[in-house]
Structures are given as C-alpha cells and as structure tokens.
Specification:
Length: 469
Amino acid sequence: MAEVQTPKHIVEKLDQYVIGQDDAKRAVAVALYNRYRRMQLSPKMQEEITPKNLLMIGPTGVGKTEIARRLAKIVEAPFVKVEATKFTEVGYVGRDVESMVRDLAETAVAMEEEKQFSKVRIRAEKEANKRLVKILVPAIRKEKNTNPMAEMMSMLQGMQNGKMPAGDDADAGGEVTDDIRNKRLSVAEQLEKGLLEDHEITVAVNDEKKGGGMGDMYGQMGIDLSDTIGALMPKKKVERTMTVKEAREIFIKEESDKLVNHADIYHDAIQSAENNGIIFIDEIDKIAAGNKHNSGEVSREGVQRDILPIVEGSQINTKYGPINTDHILFIGSGAFAEAKPSDLIAELQGRFPIRVELKDLTEKDFVRILTEPDNALIKQYIALIGADGVKITFTKEAVDRIAEIATQVNHDTDNIGARRLATILEKLLEDVLYEGPDMAMGSVTVTQQYVDDKIGHIAADSNMTRYIL
C-alpha cells in the first residue's frame, strides 16, 4: 500500500464520495487496515492470517460499487470489478472464472509500470526530445541504389552479428550536414522553451491494435503468445499526424519502456496483486439458486463451485507468472431481492464471513448526494452548463423538491437508488442543455416552481413516471 491509512482516515475519504452507509464504510476500512496489521507480523503468522471477505447486501444505487471502487483508489491497490453472471460452467458461453485473477494481474502490472515509468520520466523525456528534433529537422536522404533483396540479406546478417536494425532512428540512411546540426540546435532550444507544442508532425508509432481469436483463447489459459510472436516479427508501425506535445508523450512512453526492467515490474506487480489486490464480485445474488427450480439452477451452482477455490485460495497461472489468491480481498455484492445469502452454497457463504447491509436511501440522503460530495451531480451540471457560458444556480427549495420527487418515484416504481437523481436532473435540465450553446451568456435559476413546471406533472402521473422518470 502506498501509505498507511487508518480506518478513520479511510472512512473520512470515503465520506467525500459516498453519502451514508456508515456500517459498510467501517467494515471495508477495517478489512483494509487489517492488511497493514498483517504485514507487521512474522512471515509465519502472515501466512496464517487470511482476509475477512465481505458480502455487501443492498438494493441497486445505494453505493456498493462506489465504496469498493473508491476504496481501491484511496489505498492505491490493484482493483477489478467482475459480474458473477458473466461466468458460466464449461460448455456454456461465458468467461472462465480464473480470468478475474488474470484481469487483476493486468491492472497490477499497469499500476507498477506507471510507477516505474514516473521514475525514469526525466531521462525518457530527454530521449523523446532528441527524436522530435530529428523528425522536425530530418537528415538528407541518400539515393538508394541497392537491391532490396541484398539490403534485406545485409540486415539479417547484421542481426546474426548482434546488430539490431535501427527502425526508430530517423537518421538511418541519411546524411547530417553542419547546416542541419545548427538547425537542430535551434529547434532543440525552441522545444525546451515550449514554443513548438502545437506544431503538427507526422510520426511512425507502434500499431496498438490487439489481435483477437487464438491470442484471446490462449490468454484465458494464462499463456501469452504476444511476446513470442513479437520476438519473431518486428512491431508494425503506422503513420499518424499529431502535435509535438502529443508525439512527445508517445515517445516518452516508448523510451520509458526501454529504460525499465520488465522482469522487476512483473515481480512487483504479482506481489502487489497477491497482498493488496481487491476483487469485487457484483451480482453475486444472481448465481444463488433461490427458490427457482429450473434448468438454470445447475449452472448457477456450478458457477459458485468454480468461484469457490479462487476465494478459498489457489494458484492461478497468468502471463506474468503464477498468482496465489490466499490474501486477495474479495468483496461480494448483490441486492438479494429474490434470493438470500443463505441460498449460496454453504462453502461459499463461509468464505464471506463479514455481512454488511446497506440501507435504502432517504430523502435527506438524496439532498446530501446532490450537494455534498466532491463529484455531486448538481456540481457536475453547473460545470457542464457553465462550459457554454451559462451560469445556473439551484435554490435550496429546488434541491429539496428534486430529492422529494426522486424518493416518491423510487417508492412508486422500481427502487434504483441514487441513479434516479441522474434521470430526474437530465429531464429537468433538458431545455437548458439544448438551448445553452445558443444562449451565449446568461443565467438560469432553478427554483421549486421551475422543478414543478418541468417535471411535477410527470411525477404526479404514475403511467408517465414509469416511462419517463
């Protein structure tokens, strides 16, 4: 973990984004801090202490996923969200359950790469600028009189002697005169001062298109063919026109890639995934059999039995190396409207010892959700509409009325929690969002009367509510 965060600090940070649900926040904060406690113990005791996985129970839109996602960001831990319904038994169409661990490995490697790249950024930027100078002031191309076949044979002979072809060198096969050197010094100075950032250039970059088919199938088994194929064939290059600023970032990434030790990155990423990884399994209630006795029940129980060994602790092969899942924190989540946690197979229930029930959101919660968090919906709409030069303000009475309508609609139709607020605000501000670009400058005040005029009649009509809100 990046820095030690006490349970109280974790909850305080979660409060900035998630309203209410104090029990759930405390439970996840303690589960996270227990990891730090474990790392202070002797290696023998560390092996014995396994994470206490959580099962979050509550209707949609109350903050289950948001708590887990924000939690991972706070502690800078590798995090993946998967849906239990995507996994099916072998023979059915679906993903192999082990793919959740491989996805975690990918996330951990990306995080570790970013960390290592930041350490070599200054050196990589210098190399990137050198490449930019050569592109902006190219060498004088010599006439090619050689036979293409002879040229290829020469290149292969050079590779046999340990000399790799200079594919990225813009000066390859060209002549650099004194005049060009002087121009390059001038351009290098301009680059340092940031005078050429918006200048457009055409550069050859690696083709990032991902191959599907067989590669994906082998990837499901933890086998990476890309490195093998990449070693046999040079990377395909494509030409793109972009600004100097954009090209520099691409070159910095390419140069950073050359400066870091990938074996160390993969090793550290595996360690991070094993000790700090969080896997959030959503819709776990959908694989509980419940009271429905039909042909799908066998498949549901099969998925549970497939997930069980991963949650219990097993070794999964990934293209970066084997990952042991003993100390990965699993957070299960589901509404459990039609099924109960006790409908899960007993062994899986036992692997989620901490149960947290998230409560339905009240009208007061909706008012706080609209105004308090750092990413509050009303703040988002004020910023969006402000981009057109239109200032929009909401009175306290208007916010109260929006929350009241959201509560009423959730009660009368399906309860979709805080997601109802987004639907109501979009309908409420429909005219402003449409007219905004043509209003040039102006201001709009959303009052209680404005809310009633725009959506009051819809909220009052149960038939309209079902279709529109």
